[in-house]
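Re: Re: ligand-bound prediction request (bumping)

Still looking for help on this. To restate: I need the protein modeled with zinc ion bound, output as structure tokens. Inputs repeated here so nobody has to scroll up.
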Amino acid sequence: MVIKQMKCRKIKKLLPLYIDNALTFGEKQIVEEHLKECPTCRAQLKSLSSMVKIIESLPEISPPPDFTEKVISKISQIKS
Ligand SMILES: [Zn+2]
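Reply:
Sorry for the wait, this slipped through. Here it is.
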């Protein structure tokens, strides 16, 4: 379904912000609604959040605030 695929692309862009808890209330609801019905984006969220955990658990670097987001968006670009 074309419409759903377009939505997936939009959701994938929002996922890093979702993990960072940086979405507006409305956007967050859109993402959560979509995740309920889309196993692809759920898998994407899962791999992104485990990536974030790895980055955050690295004790020796203190990345700039937007570092995680940049890494995630790079990764998402590679995957899609
Ligand atoms: Zn999706």
